[in-house]
Amino acid sequence: MEKLYETLAKAAIEDFESFFVPSSNFVIAFKVANIHSPAKVVGNSEGSTVILSHYMLQERVQSVDDAMFFLIIIGHELAHYVNKHLAHTDESKIDSVAIEGWADFFGARIMFTLITYGNQTQKIIDELIAVPFISPASTSERQDLILRAYGRALRRAYESLYRPSDGSSKYPRSEIRVGTYTAGVSSFFYRLFGSISENWTFYVYRRLLFLTRLIEIYDEGTTIEPDSFFERTREIHVNLKGTNNVFISSGLKQKYWNLIGTDYIDEPRHREWVKEKLKKEFDEWDFKIGF
Question: What's the pTM?
Answer without folding.
Answer: 0.88
